[in-house]
Amino acid sequence: MKHSTKFALVLGLGILALILEFIFHFPLAAQIIITAVGIVISFSMLLEMIKTLRAGKYGVDLLAITAIIATLAVGEYWASIVVLVMLTGGDSLEDYAAHKAGKELQTLLDNSPQTANVLMNEHLTVKPVDEVLVNDQVVVKPGEVVPVDGVILSGTSIFDESSLTGESKPANKSLGDDLMSGSVNGDGAVTMKVTKLAADSQYQTIVKLVKNSEAQPAHFVRLADRYAIPFTLVSYLIAGVAWFVSKDPVRFAEVLVVASPCPLILAAPIALVSGMSSANRNGIIIKNGTAIEKLATTKTIAFDKTGTLTKGILAIDKIKNLPPFSETEFLSLTASAEQQSSHILARSIVKASDPHSLMPVSHIKEVTGMGVTAQVDDHQIKIGRKKFVTDQNFDSPSQTAIFVAIDDQFAGYITFSDQIRPEAAVTISQLNKLGIQNTLMISGDQKATADAVGKQIGISKVYAECLPEDKITILKDQEDHLRPVTMVGDGVNDAPSLTVADVGIAMGARGSTAASESADIVILKDDLGRVARALSISKYTMRIAKQSVLIGIFICIGLMLIAATGIIPALLGALFQEVVDTVTILWALLAHRNSTQLKQIIAEQKNN
Questions:
Q1: Which of 50, 110, 398, 496 is most buried, with most CB under 10 Å away?
Q2: CB of 97 within 8 A of CB of 269?
Q3: Which tens digit of pLDDT belongs to each residue from 119-143?
Q4: Residues belonging to the active site
């Protein structure tokens, strides 16, 4: 039975009992109805509690069950129905809060584009979005949602990307600019070339993330469970002493009624959902509450370099070709072999070459972390790391480079230059201020290049020339006092690292679908500064969650001590719990707002 249905049933039968006792004057019938409801709900809670205990966890449900049974046993059935309404209402509120967490994204999902205007033979043809192919030309009219990812071929317009990135300011887009599916076109029509199928586009990536969040609910839902055993013992002790001193079992029920754990059960989930909502507004998807808790306590943050700490838009710096291949032929063969790759270096090579010089490619094979082999115009091409391509002994360039062999003969190399993200140094400084003193850069790049980048932005330790398996080893080998460990990356090669880390953060705006799906947190805007925002939001959310739980505990203990004197009747005590609920919920909702610290971080990022 759904929690909302259970709540409606308890509330309805409670109203029926009120009518029977106070209108038709059948108090016995009212008591029977409430007792039956109390026994059924208590039994169902007991079964759930047994499942929880078998899973090795301990909750606060035992206290609620005792409160219901005790009030029924001493004839305080109206107090019992109030407790029942609160409990079932609390569960319903949790369900509502979980649904509420994805509200910012749900509007986007409900408006998913179903068709695209495909330009074929100079005529527009409306096609289902799933039938649109890479390299198709699509016209996006004013007011339309961009159906798939692409790059503008003609036209200029402004695009609202707020649902994707959290950035409220519309972005001006023109020739050569990337368009993300799900963004809304302004007042100008543009023609774009499709770069990803609908299933791989940014919009569908978000859909998958939301569905994944719903399919994998947070394990860390009841922060109060940490305090469950001591709180339960204190409650039973106060209630038992009150019964022993007064010799009245009603006193035991009166104490346990105000000890009802509803506010404790509600506090953490509401705070966590509020924090997730705050993150969504900042262009950050946090998949579950567990990620918030771990990120809030993280002690080490590791970064990939290319595309994460740097812009990832690498331009060719130098082409070193060897005879018998001319520079033009060398570049043409290399670009042809790389034209189907999404790797940053591959995109730079293809972009720098003449589109008319690209030749058909076949038999492409990728060797993870090393390079690719392919067949181009009867030539066997091998591209990648030096040791993958050749065993010749020569001084390697100090810059980022790829090496090329043609027909098993070393043919030369291409070097690239990259730019450090302008927000990188500020982000590392902000992370230091937030308590992260151990920052790592784990890169597959050469040591000289990686060290230079790390030193410039303030990284505390640099690991260079790392294969994907090396990254995993480095993350796993971090000492216990440096954990939890968070990994920030954006590429396919980062997906295993994001999975192994205690918290994986994917730069989803430019990163691969694999990286986004492997991560616990996804940054939707291509902005490294959002990592500092995510950390600040998580720390603030956990602080509010803990405060709201402790407030509920202290108020309940105070009420129990008062109830132990007999001043608070059971019914009044149950009503007092509504006040405690309200206070706890209102405090937990503070996590929805931007904290002072977060506002300072945002202001500093904008100024830089």
A1: 496
A2: yes
A3: 988 888 999 998 999 999 999 999 8
A4: 304
